[in-house]
Amino acid sequence: MTVALETTPIAAGREPRRLFEITPKLLETLRRGGADMSQLGIPAQPEPEDGLWDNVSVPQARALKNIWISSMREAAHDDYLRFRFKHLDDPQQKPKSLERWLDTLVQAKRDGVRPEVLNLIMPGPIGSGKTTAAAALGNEASERGLVTLLVKHATYLAWRRPDGSPDGQRAYQVRKRHVEADLLILDELAGEMDGTATEFARRETVDLIDSRLAAGRPTAYTTNLRSRGTGGNPGIVDILGERLLSRIESRAHVLKIIGEDRRKPKKDLDW
């Protein structure tokens, strides 16, 4: 009796795999698993040219960088993407203090623990360089393995309103994204509020900060306001309330950014 064996036809243009052949997919699996590739006769791969953190796989590192870049573009801060700590030539922008804080955040993530300082408050007058310093912090953090976002306070509140979310996102997705980021930079806290904030603004801000504190995730704040009003000028507590101020000051460190208005022309304009 003759038995006919069925064979699977080989697609045109494809060669059959040889027994024990290391395919590109298997090679990638071995590499991600930490296998010593030199034992397989495979030469070491060159370092990435864009200086990404060597403890993060290149695709993941690029993804982290893109998340950060997208948030900066949403805030219309494209011009700030070039700044790093080395570019903060004014000591008043506290580059060393920012770098030390970032070191603690990176180490805490590696160790799976909460950072000792969860809130970094960066108050200062208009044009003193707060956003530049915060951008340098975010640029460096995104390159060291932290999911980092920057959002203006007023923008976050607008996104949390019905039909206010960007790119077809739902309001709960906006909240989730900003609560779960490893590092959130909340820019211009209460910056567009001239008086007492609405109940919605207070509730949403407290919810965001409370949720990040409960999860042990650090947040940096920039603001033109002081904690409490002086000389008829309102402070954070006057606008957002005592409850929110106490949340911000919980496990916090203050870095005052003091300096002349960098945006002001050297010569006053007569108009």
TrEMBL record:
Source superkingdom: Bacteria
Classification via SMART domains: AAA
Keywords, in A-Z order: Plasmid
InterPro entries to which the protein is assigned, alphabetical: AAA+_ATPase, IstB_ATP-bd, P-loop_NTPase
Pfam annotation, one family: IstB_IS21
Methyltransferase in keyword set: no
Name of this protein: AAA+ ATPase domain-containing protein
Species the sequence originates in: Streptomyces subrutilus
